[in-house]
UniProtKB/TrEMBL annotation, chains A, B:
<dbReference type="InterPro" id="IPR012347">
    <property type="entry name" value="Ferritin-like"/>
</dbReference>
<protein>
    <submittedName>
        <fullName>Ferritin-like domain-containing protein</fullName>
    </submittedName>
</protein>
<dbReference type="InterPro" id="IPR059125">
    <property type="entry name" value="Ferritin_actino"/>
</dbReference>
<dbReference type="InterPro" id="IPR009078">
    <property type="entry name" value="Ferritin-like_SF"/>
</dbReference>
<feature type="domain" description="Ferritin-like">
    <location>
        <begin position="6"/>
        <end position="185"/>
    </location>
</feature>
<dbReference type="Pfam" id="PF13794">
    <property type="entry name" value="MiaE_2"/>
</dbReference>
């Protein structure tokens, strides 16, 4: 089929991001949730990520790509991100589920819009939040009301999540120069657009932090 | 609402069995799956278990029970079963997903039929396999064709899964004497029925073992 170059890469990295988010959220739910209700709630977020993975995997099949092959180049970087951002407790798990995932998904959305408007709609659909994050926001806010001193620790944690995401992003860019080149070219003709992109990502991240009270 | 006694207990143990199966299968998928396709396939089994958990949790709510409170008495025993049957490799994970879960679900089905025919239909619906186990059967058969010597090791593993399930079952019976009494009374009037129950469970287990080639 007639595909914009880079589309298979983008859908592949997204598909593996969703598959690994599903598995890691389930692991966090099993290991860190303080109550059965919390375990079920984080489990539900995990299941939603799996649904996204299925949509992306099907889309890859429809455009004639092998989903496993499309995901393979990104397994190492995404697994490394998860290994380096393994939550030590329940609050860290919630912040990771909301803030860490949030900034990654914002980036994927921007990238899709630049690469190929035809897949931007699918990506938007796949990445819709559906109010699932309310759960994490409420729990973190309540914890910080009970213990305001935890805010500094969680702010550091959020910074680490974003820092590790940036460093894995650079690794992907180095390993997939074609994908990186396409993304850069898509914005490079307009230097101001790069600034606006970063401003949008930073603003959305700040809103998520504020929503949690961090 | 007018509930047969023991129904909340039975739905509670089943709900937690499904929730913990979901989380453990996801963990096995993350840690042990040799390929991305395998990871996604075991992930899909995990997500199906979560769907069952949701149905049971909703049913508990409908009959006026608190799902968390209904599950709580069974958390320790089921977590202990999972801790003692943590698969060491991918084949052990598949055998656990198919054989270990299979015998537990057969038992729940029999128990539901005895306790209250009204919930037997729901339990049957929740526990329907939907051909999901084909995946595990195919993979184990293929592995044993490539290496027939693994069969003995996997047969021992299956025996351990069942042995640990029996010992946790005895623990639950000791901790929930009311539930145990109801189940025993439901069959005690007919000694032959107890034999038939065990014969059915054993036969179904043997069929699963044979299907896998163990």
């Amino acid at each position: 089929m007639n595909q914009s170059p880079g589309v298979v890469d983008l859908l592949g990295v997204l598909a593996y991001a969703e598959l690994s988010a599903f598995l890691r959220l389930a692991e966090d739910a099993a290991l860190l949730a303080p109550t059965l209700g919390d375990r079920a709630a984080l489990g539900e977020l995990a299941v939603a990520e799996y649904g996204h993975f299925k949509l992306l995997s099907r889309k890859l099949g429809e455009i004639g790509a092998d989903p496993d092959a499309a995901m393979a180049p990104f397994v190492e970087s995404l697994d490394a991100w998860h290994a380096q951002t393994r939550p030590a407790d329940w609050l860290q798990a919630l912040v990771k589920a909301y803030v860490g995932t949030g900034i990654a998904l914002d980036f994927y959305r921007e990238a899709a819009r630049r690469l190929d408007p035809a897949i931007a709609a699918l990506v938007d659909e796949v990445l819709v939040d559906e109010g699932r994050s309310e759960f994490a926001v409420e729990r973190v806010r309540a914890a910080l009301e009970a213990d305001p001193t935890a805010a500094g620790r969680l702010a550091l944690w959020a910074r680490r999540l974003v820092g590790e995401a940036l460093s894995q992003g650079q690794r992907v860019a180095a390993e997939r120069p074609e994908l990186a080149r396409l993304l850069v070219e898509a914005v490079a003709e307009d230097q101001a657009e790069i600034s606006r992109l970063f401003a949008r990502l930073t603003e959305a991240h700040g809103k998520r932090m504020a929503a949690m009270g961090i």
